Amino acid sequence: MRSGRTTFVVLLGLGACAATAVMAREMVLAPGASLSISDSPKEVMDQVWQIVFRDYLDTTGKYTPDRWRKLRRDLLAKNYDSPKDSYVAIRGMLGTLDDPYTRFLDPREFKEMQIDTSGELSGVGIQLSLDKDTKELVVIAPIEGSPASRAGVKPKDVIVAIDGKSTKGMNTEDAVKLIRGKSGTAVTLTLRRKTETIQLALTRELIELHAVTHQLNTAADGSKLGYIRLKQFNANAAADMRTALQDLEGRAVQGYVLDLRSNPGGLLVASVEIARQWLDEGVIVSTKTRDGIQDVKRATGKAITTKPLVVLVNEGSASASEILSGALQENNRAVLVGQKTFGKGLVQSVRGLSDGSGMTVTIAKYLTPANHDIHHRGILPDVQAKLTEQEAKGLTIEDLGTTKDPQYRVAESTLLKGIQTAATLQKAYKPGSANLPAALGAK
Fold first, then answer.
1. Catalytic residue among 231, 297, 307, 344
2. Which pick of 26, 44, 229, 342 has the fewest CB atoms within 10 Å?
């Protein structure tokens, strides 16, 4: 018995984010697979084994075909009473690879991952984080226009209970599973705001996730600057970026700051499409599998703007963020400001399995236009601008991209210099004339 499955070739960020770049049909059961494997917990186990055997790119040195074959024989020789038992065995099997990006997702986890990258979800619209000191669940911000936003949920509210269940000891994934749900259903959140306790009954809705926010900033010298913050590379990211650029171009900005700080990555296709909106020509990225095959993505001559650009990065800028910032830096399209990026240069494929579970498997590494492998190395900014721990604690979401943001201030001053340089060159060079004074540097 053989099962046809759909493969999604993607680039993953720091978390479970991923999404579709290329689709292909494949057979998931290995030649010679026993029919007794079908319709049992062993079927999914064997599917996972085969995917690794066929496509896995070893970056840790822990994989050999012979060892992997022996592991299959040992695992399939055992009996498993339930899918849960086989899931434990699958996770143990993948754990031998020592690759955090090759991992198994049970049906619920796989569905959550698909929601995260689809560009929409059903919930109340709250972005959460876990306070590293208190271990409490803290609201980063409600999504604009969401049930949480309309009900008055505020940044820094602490979620102490969900439907009466204490959040003590919960991580963000646990909380998200309880808060999300079918559109039209209700969830009650208990919040602590300073010394006040607030209980809110919210109705879940289908919420569209906008990957981009943008604004027009005016510098001290009167220059009009476009500020664009790209939060993740989801299914909406390229369209959101195009909308932001078209709006700011219509407002006659003189240059841009593109903020990729703490952007964990996402869709490979989104990073390429967005790079093409900024870059008229040149290589964007190439991918290399264990067979050495390279897939080279290039600009297509359809950049929306060629105005001066500064890109803000930090240690949380990973994966697709590094593809974009590396392409813009190495094609001399942008100046990078901030801190060294995370250094995640691997491509994962997301595979759906026969029982609704799934997995992510490392299948390639990506190289920057100059053929640099940045995995574990990261990308160095052209201009260093660090954020101290004290500055980071005092910075709110609303402060990003304003003069209250120390790294943005460095980016803005760098951009203003670039605008001035571009204006000087444009003024000096006059096409169609001998332009001798400009050539000689005369004033």
1. 344
2. 26
129: annotated active-site residue: no
pLDDT tens per residue across span 102-145: 999 999 888 878 766 666 678 898 878 788 789 899 987 787 77
CA distance 44 to 24: 19
Full 3-state SS string of 102-171? CEEECHHHHHHHHHHHHCEEEECCEEEEECCCCCCEEEEEECCCCHHHHHCCCCCCEEEEECCEECCCCC
Q: In this predicted model, what pLDDT tens digit does every residue of 16-35 receive, in sequence order?
A: 333 222 222 222 333 333 33
Residue of 342, 418, 316, 336 whose CA lies nearest to 385: 336
Handedness of CA 192, 198, 204, 210 (dihedral sign): negative
Q: Which residue among 86, 271, 319, 349 is the active-site one? A: 319
- Residue range 120-208, CATH number: 2.30.42.10
Helices (H), 331-405: 389-393
How confident is the model at residue 256, as a pLDDT? 98
Return the minimum-mean-pLDDT range out of 69-73, 175-179, 184-188. Answer: 175-179
Quick check: 122 and 146 in contact, CB under 8 A? no
Give residue-wise pLDDT tens across range 335-349.
999 999 999 999 999
Q: Which residues contact 246 (CB under 8 A, 6 or more apart)?
A: 304
Helix axes 320-330, 268-278, angle to 10 degrees: 30
Q: Which residues pair with 283 in a beta bridge?
A: 298
Q: Is 40 a catalytic residue?
A: no
Q: Which residues contact 356 (CB under 8 A, 6 or more apart)?
A: 107, 110, 111
- 214-246 tens-digit pLDDT: 999 999 999 999 999 999 898 889 999 999 999
Counting other chains too, the contacts that 74-83 makes at CB distance below 8 Å and 24 or more residues apart are 75/45, 75/49, 76/37, 76/42, 76/45, 76/46, 80/40, 80/41, 80/42, 80/45, 81/41, 82/41, 83/41, 83/44, 83/355
Contact (CB, 8 A) for 200 and 188 = yes
Where do the structural domains in the chain lie, given as residue ranges? 4-115, 120-208, 212-347+361-426
Q: Which fold has domain 212-347+361-426?
A: 2-enoyl-CoA Hydratase; Chain A, domain 1 (3.90.226)
Would you place residue 430 in the very low, low, confident or very high pLDDT band (cuts 50, 70, 90)? Answer: low
Residue-wise pLDDT tens digits, 259-297 = 999 888 888 999 999 999 999 999 999 999 999 888 999
User: Topology of 4-115 in CATH?
Assistant: Transcription Regulator spoIIAA (3.30.750)
